[in-house]
Amino acid sequence: MTCAEYLRLLDGEDPECPQALAHRRACPACATAFRRRHAVKEAFAAMASEQAPPFLHARIMAGLRSQPRARRSRLADLLGPRPAWAAAAVAAVLMVALGSVGLWEVLGPQGAPAPEFMDALLREAPEVAAKAAQDAAAAGGSVERESLPTVGLEQRSRPRPPAAPRGAPMAARDTVTTAAPPPAPASTTLSEPPPPIRQHQEVALPGAPDRVAQLRARTVEIRMDEAPPSPAERRAEKAASGQPLPARDAAASPPEKVRCLLHPADDRPHLEVLLDPTLAARLPPDLHLVVHTTGRIGTDPELAAVLQALHPPPGRYVFTCGVRPHTVTAPEGPVP
Amino acid sequence: MAGALAYARVMTVDSALRELPGCDPDARLVAAARVGDQAAFEDLVRHHEEAVYRVARRFLGDPEEAMDVCQDVFLRVYRALPRFRGDAAFRTWVLGITMNLCRTRLSSAAARRRRRTVSLETDETGYGKSGTMEVRDPAPDPEAGARGNELGKALAWALHRLSPDHREVLVLREVTGLEVDAVAAVLGCAPGTVKSRLFRARQTLRQLLEGVWP
Questions:
Q1: Residue A61: HSE in the Cβ half-sphere, 13 Å Cα cutoff
Q2: Chain B nearest-CA residue for A9
Q3: Is the pLDDT of residue B62 over 80?
Q4: Considering chain B, what is the average pLDDT of its residues?
Q5: Does B9 score more than 50 pLDDT?
Q6: In terms of pLDDT, which residue wins out, B58 or B129?
Q7: Which is more confident, A92 or A124?
Q8: In the prediction, which pLDDT does A329 show?
Q9: Cβ of B145 and A40 within 8 Å?
Q10: DSSP-assigned beta bridge partners for residue A327
């Protein structure tokens, strides 16, 4: 066996054969190559034992909670995954059945589809409902999350409105609304049940997942706006609301820690989280904030101010928000 | 010979179960998650998030991008779970999605811009483009343990000099510990192709390391 043959064997998947072993014992260069290969294998093993960041799980789950969930019927669950040909087969069977039984059983007295049939269609085709929601949003309206169930365990939504009478127009019966929603209340309290909000936003603690639930109770609120405000509008809004916010009703209600504005954008909701450093001073001193959003979060100086107010251990903190996380460094020592 | 063969075939019970066709240890959780059990889905995430992170981390070379990919992967898994037919193991399916997203991210303009910016001075391994060691940023690094030695740094540097095709097979085989057949299933190619790429990847890696790791 030559050195070239040995190196080929070393780079391959096959185990070392007796001839290769004999060559390695006789050839110092190949013995060195073997040792290096073994060391590289151990270095790969070290990479394999690398730990993921402690807040990775919380971040993944926060992303999942903000997603709409596809609805499936119990029958579909029992049937399991549907191959592509199954849809064609079902369609063919339906066509034959409708042709033999008669369309009068499906159509209403005026020839329009009966409400029961449309309900069944909507139940079995969530994409139809989603499309309707998108159309409504594109037309300037808003969509209640209730119509698109989400993964969120702590998801809160408005109570389901009473069902419209049979035969009412589709737009009236669906949960898609075209009018701007009323403004959400200014703050939430820990002692009383929070008012209905449109979507729960998680505030997670890296390295201390057991405290996530506790923070969830303190919640944040999300207000629907028709369009994202410009920075000038935002400054004006802040000035008009008399920042800092606790000054308004500090004695009566706990401070509002995080305020979120959810803007229905063209393709995906744009969520903006506004953190007020003066409010953060009232948070527990051992709190480390990681705010998971699907949009963008204030500016880095704001986040740094929050970190300073919270007195976290020195280190790098990642504020996860959409595509690019903001990394903020907490300084050493207490902040005056 | 027999000893070497035995060494090559040693597998944990878990990996052996994963290798067996039709015996997916995640099957129960997948079935529960498909009917809306959120706790089961969270368990699935918990079981696989580390593997997904490691693959993305080593393929992309950027911890933050790897976390982005992790989030995207499980979003896609969640959306596509009703269509998961169970032909392959759940882990294989998830890693396949991971590799697709990693490749997409790698080819995106934003990622190119970001990598270019980093490689002008020094990359995350501390080596410059020329292969000379440069001064590392002393900022705290969460993966300092994994890169605590010179070989670890050199290996991370060399890994990112490989082509994406070569890097992905090496990461899946060496970092994730998948067998060749499983790597082929993840990448959707023949086992022979995987073996050939692994051979070329190791050859290139060895040559790259000769320059930076004495």
A1: 27
A2: B199
A3: yes
A4: 73
A5: no
A6: B58
A7: A92
A8: 54
A9: no
A10: A318
pTM above 0.80, yes or no: no
- Beta-carbon neighbour count of residue A83 at 10 Å? 11
Distance from the A238 Cα atom to the nearest Cα atom in chain B, whole angstroms: 32
CB burial of residue B197 (10 Å; 0-12, 13-18, 19+): buried
Instruction: Output the DSSP codes for A9-60.
Output: HHHSSSPPPHHHHHHHHH-HHHHHHHHHHHHHHHHHHHHHTPPPPTTHHHHH
Distance of CA A287 to CAs A52, A61, A203, A221, Å?
21, 20, 10, 19
What's the average model confidence in pLDDT over A65-79? 53
Nearest CB to A48 within list B41, B54, B213: B54
Task: Please say if the pLDDT value at position B163 is more than 50.
Answer: yes
Q: Give the DSSP letter of residue A2.
A: -
Question: Is residue B7 exposed (0-12), middle (13-18) or buried (19+ Cβ within 10 Å)?
Answer: exposed
Please give the helix or strand (H or E) that residue A97 lies within, else none.
helix A84-101
Contact list in A for residue B64 (CB cut-off 8 A) is: 318, 324-325, 327
User: Which residue do the tokens 């030559």 mark?
Assistant: A2
Tokens of A130: 């989603």
- The neighbouring-strand residues paired with A142 are A177
Are B78 and B36 within 8 A, CB to CB? no
pLDDT in tens, A110-123: 443 334 433 443 34
Secondary structure (3-state) at B147? coil
Question: Which carries the bigger pLDDT value, residue A214 or residue B61?
Answer: B61
Distance from CA of B172 to the nearest CA of A (A): 10
Which chain B residues touch A13 with a CB distance below 8 Å? 180, 195, 198-199
Alpha helices in B61-190 (DSSP H): 63-80, 90-107, 109-119, 150-159, 164-170, 180-187
Compare CB distances from B4 to A15, A320, A329 and report the shortest one's residue: A15
In B, which residues are within 8 Å of A324 by CB distance? 64
At A242 the three-state DSSP class reads: coil
Would an 8 Å CB–CB cutoff place B140 in contact with chain A? yes
Q: Residue A233 has what pLDDT?
A: 60
How far is C-alpha A274 from the geometric centre of its chain's CA atoms? 18
Lowest average pLDDT, out of A223-237, A266-280, B69-83, B197-211, goes to A266-280
From B83, B84, B152, residue closest to A46, measured CB to CB: B152
ipTM of the complex: 0.70
Phi, psi of A200 (to 5 degrees): -85, 135
Closest Cα in chain A to B5: A15
The Cα B172–Cα B17 span in angstroms is: 18
- Mean pLDDT, rounded, for A292-297: 37
B 50-109 residues with CB below 8 A of A? 50, 53-54, 57-58, 63-64, 67-68, 70-71, 74-75, 78-79, 82-86
Which tokens hold the place of B106?
């790698």
Residue B138 has pLDDT above 70, yes or no: no
- CB distance A152 to A123 below 8 Å: no
